[in-house]
């Protein structure tokens, strides 16, 4: 069950925010620029949102940087994105460390070129002791992939005779799902006007509140972020219970 969110001032702050950063390509194209210019501009929004999450006391932020399906984009765009990831990881790691942000990359990184895999490992290691915000970057990630890899780990335990097949329940499978050591996602934000989940943290978003923003990712800054937080704070989260039960529990 998701953990309860801490209170900051008047606002209930989500413990874990997931973001599908959409709209980079359209942002660039509307300026007559190549799509990669939009991805580069998107890095500025990443920095800004990390800062805002730290400021607001959010515990974990997970960003969808590259989905398992993004390999189907034109080869040149994929190549540019890979180069951008390498540059960003090298350039930002000091700043993350200074701000006590712990980075983790989730997804099948074995598909990336060795240099990128190495940068990922170095950045994770460099920030491993940080105690502040958990910044997770989903790269070559898919929610279905995540469930399959978890099922495989559980099946392996059963095959080795360490558990009975019947012991595989939600709690056990959940231990193998990416980010099991962090709160479940409370708030899922998607920018860029589309309203779908696109195979992002399917398991972890089971009870997430969804917020869809028209703002394209490179334009996403404090106003849009605050709007998402305000909207989240106004939602009644019932986790399957009735509204009356939730009201009773709040009053008691
Ligand atoms: C979706 O916009 C965006 C991406 C697939 C890439 C996002 C990557 C970054 C912002 C770089 C951040 C880097 C790190 C390491 C966190 P889109 O291209 O689908 O936009 P469109 O819908 O307008 O075409």
UniProtKB/TrEMBL annotation:
Entry-linked PROSITE patterns: UPP_SYNTHASE (PS01066)
Coiled coil start-end: none
Active site (record annotation): 22, 70 (proton acceptor)
Keyword set, alphabetical order: Cell shape, Cell wall biogenesis/degradation, Magnesium, Metal-binding, Peptidoglycan synthesis, Transferase
UniProt binding sites for Mg(2+): 22, 209
Cofactor annotation comment: Binds 2 magnesium ions per subunit.
Binding site for substrate: 23-27, 35, 39, 67-69, 71, 73, 190, 196-198
Organism domain of life: Bacteria
GO molecular function, one term: ditrans,polycis-undecaprenyl-diphosphate synthase [(2E,6E)-farnesyl-diphosphate specific] activity
HAMAP family, sorted: ISPT (MF_01139)
Role summary: Catalyzes the sequential condensation of isopentenyl diphosphate (IPP) with (2E,6E)-farnesyl diphosphate (E,E-FPP) to yield (2Z,6Z,10Z,14Z,18Z,22Z,26Z,30Z,34E,38E)-undecaprenyl diphosphate (di-trans,octa-cis-UPP). UPP is the precursor of glycosyl carrier lipid in the biosynthesis of bacterial cell wall polysaccharide components such as peptidoglycan and lipopolysaccharide.
Description of how the protein assembles with itself and partners: Homodimer.
Protein name: Ditrans,polycis-undecaprenyl-diphosphate synthase ((2E,6E)-farnesyl-diphosphate specific)
